[in-house]
Amino acid sequence: MSEDNQDQNDQQQEETLFEFPCEFPIKAMGKTCPELEIAIIEIMNRHVPDLGEGAVRMRPSSKGTYTAITVVIQAQSKNQLDAIYMELTACEHIAYAI
Which helix (H) or strand (E) holds 87? Predict the structure, then answer.
């Protein structure tokens, strides 16, 4: 590995506490509606082409007004996670993404 590549890898590791690839849960919440689930799945499929079976879990609030959707992915990089969160938070159906 060249010195430049090593410096770049060191810099990326300093920017995040995660070691990639790693399993990473992404949670998004919004008002309960069919469009919420569709939007989250479409966004995730754009950034994670190989979502595993059982990767998506949905949990309604006690009154059913809101739904929390957790998607567990195999994250490849900080850039990938940043792109996912940018798109999730820009979606009109999603109130929060953590």
Answer: helix 78-90
What are the tens digits of pLDDT across the range 28-67?
A: 999 999 999 999 999 999 999 888 889 999 999 999 999 9
The answer to the question of residue 12 being in a domain is no
Domain limits for position 28: 19-97
Share of the chain above pLDDT 70, in %: 84
The sign of the torsion formed by the CA atoms of 60, 98, 82, 71 equals: negative
- Residue 45, token pair as written in the block: 């499929």
CATH of the domain at 47: 3.30.70.260
